[in-house]
Amino acid sequence: MPDTPLIMLENVSKAYRKAKSEISIFDQLNLSIKEGDFVAIMGPSGSGKTTLLNLLGGVDRPTSGTITINGERIDKMSESALSRWRAHTVGFIFQFYNLMPMLTAARNVELPLLLTKLSRKQRRENVMTALKVVGLEDRAKHSPREMSGGQQQRVAIARAIVSDPKLLLCDEPTGDLDRETAGEILSTLQMLNRDFGKTILMVTHDPEAAKYAKSILHLDKGHFVEELVTS
Amino acid sequence: MMKQILSVSWISLRSLPQRLWLSLATILTIAVVVAVLLAFLAMSNGFRKTLEGTGSDDVALILRGGASTELNSVLSREDQAVLETAAGIAKNNGEPMISGELYVVVNGTKKTSGTKVNLPLRGLSEQGIAMRGPVTISQGRLFVPGRNELVVGRALLGEFDGFDLNSTVRFGATDWDIVGVFETGGTVFESELWSDLAGVQNQFNRGSSVQSVRAKLTSPDAIEDLKDFAENDPRLGVDVISEKDYFKEQSQSTSDLILVLGWPLAIAMGLGALAGALNTIYTSVAARARDIATLRAIGFSSLSAFFGTLSESLALSVLGGLLGAAVAWSFFDGLSTSTLGGGFTQVVFSFQLGGALLVQGAILALGIGLVGGFFPAIRAARLPVAMAFSDR
Fold this sequence. Notes:
Helix content of chain A: 25-40%
CATH architecture of chain A: 3-Layer(aba) Sandwich
Order of helices and strands of chain A: EEEHEEHEHHHEHEHEE
Number of helices of chain B: 11
Radius of gyration of chain B: 30 Å
Distance between the termini of chain B: 29 Å
Domain ABC transporter (chain A): 7-231
Pfam families (chain A): ABC_tran
Number of domains of chain B: 2
Largest sheet of chain B: 11 strands, mixed
Structural class of chain B: alpha+beta
Number of strands of chain B: 15
Helix content of chain B: 40-55%
Largest sheet of chain A: 6 strands, mixed
CATH class of chain A: Alpha Beta
Oligomer: heterodimer
Number of domains of chain A: 1
Protein name (chain A): ABC transporter ATP-binding protein
Strand content of chain B: 15-25%
Number of helices of chain A: 7
Keywords (chain A): ATP-binding, Nucleotide-binding, Transport
GO molecular function, one term (chain A): ATP binding
CATH topology of chain A: Rossmann fold
Number of strands of chain A: 10
C-alpha cells in the first residue's frame, strides 16, 4: 500500500454566515490521511464532524484552504466537475441507508454505474459482484422494504463500492442499527479496508464502533484534539 | 446524461403512488381544463363545418343590396323577372334555373331545454330543392304545392318538439301538415322547414315578393358575369354572392364568438390547474428531497434532477390531457345541438373533435405540465447535496 496521503487538508477554514454574524466551524484545519487507512472521527455534536465529511465528499466547499483528494484539488472544482469527481472517487454510506424505496436492491446498487459507459451486461455483473461482497447476492430482486435495517445498510455499502471508488465516507453507518447488526456492518467495512484496500473515513458517536477503525480522531470545536491508534 | 435523466425520471414516476391523491387531483384538474377547452373547440369546429359544408360554388345567392342575411332581404317579382335574363345562369329546357325563396321565422321548442326558439320556414320551388345537391325524402313524401304542407329537415326534427311526421303544427292562424322528412347530407338546410313558395307567400301575406333568389350558374366562374349584370342593370339593387361564400361568412362570427369564449375560459381554468400542478410537484420535490440529494451525492448531475422532476409534471399533464381528451371525445364528439345562426334562427350542428383540436388540447395540457414542473424542477436542481446526510 503506498504511503502517499489520499486526503490532504491544508489550512482549511469553514464558516457559515447566519444573520449578521459568522459562525466558524473550522479555522486553519490540517489533516492528512494515507491511502488504505480506516479512520473514525468522533466528537460531540456541533464539533464539525459532518461538515468535515461534506467537505471531503465535495458536497460542501471550504471558506479558505485547499482540499486535495487522490491528487485532485476539489475545493475549486465546478459543480458539474464535482459531480463527476464524486461518481468515480467517493462512495457514500449514510446513517439511514438512503436507498430508493421503489427500486430493488440490484437497481439501487446499479445507480452509480449509470454514470459510467458500462454496458447493461457489465453493469449487471458488477452489481452482482458488489452484492456478493456484502453477502446479499440472493436478495438482488428484493425491495428495501422487504429487508432488515442491517440488510439495507449492506445494500447501501454495495452501492458505495460498486464503481470501485478509492474512498468510502461513512456518516454514522451503524447509528440506526442494534449492536449485533452494527458489528456485522463494521466487520464488513473492516473487510473492505483490509481485503480491497478501501480508504475509509467514518463519522460516529459510538466508541465501540470507532474501535473497528485503525485510528480514531477526536474533533472538538473545529480542531483535532486527539488521535488514537486502535490496532 | 440521458441514462441519468431516465433513471431520475423513473424513480420520480415510481414514487407517484406515495402522493396518489394529490397526483390524481392534479390529473383530474388538468383533465377538466382540457375537456372544457376541447368542448368549446369542438363546438366551434362543428358549427363552422356545418355551415361551410353548406352551399355550392356554382349556385349564386342574390339578396337586396346591403342585406347581410336572407331574413332582412326582400326582392320583388320584377327583380326576379330581370334576373331571369341575366348572364351566367344555366338553363334547363331553355328556362333559366333560378329559385325565388321566402325565409320566414316560426316558433319552435327545443327538446333538451324546453325553451322557445326561432326556426326557419323556407318557401321554395322544386327547382330550389334541386339546386341543393342531393336531397332525399327519408320519410313520407314531398309537399304538394297549393296545400299547407311542410317537409321537415332531419336535424330540426331531432332537436325540436312537435314536428313529427304526420303531425300538424300551427303558425299564426294556419295549420300545417308535416308530410315528410328530408335530408341534405348534414348541411344547414336540415335545420329548416320547407314548403311551397306560393303557399308561404300567401299564408304570411308576402304577396309575390321573395327574400332571396338562387341561380344555378353555368360554372363557378360565371358568378362574375352575373355580378357584372347586376351592377350594370339600373333596375336592380342587389348583391350577388356564391352560396358557398355566403355560408362561410355566416359561420365566421358565431364560430369566432365560441372560440373567443372558449380559450379565455380554458386559460382561466388552466391557471387554476397550474396552481394545482405547482403544488403537487413542489410537494413531490419536498418528499423526495433526500432521494434527489442522495443521487446528487452519488454523482448524478443537477440537470438530471431538473429533468427528472419535470418529467413527473409532464407525466401528470399527459395523463390529465389524455383523460380530458377521452372525456371530451366520449361526451361531446358527435353531440347534436343548436344555436342561433347568422339568420337569427336556430342552426343544428354536431360537436366535431379532430386531430388538430386534440393537438390544441395537448398543447394546453403540456403547457400546464411544463410551467407547473419548471419551477419545482429548478428547486430540485438546486437542492443542497448535503441534504443526503440529513435526519429522516
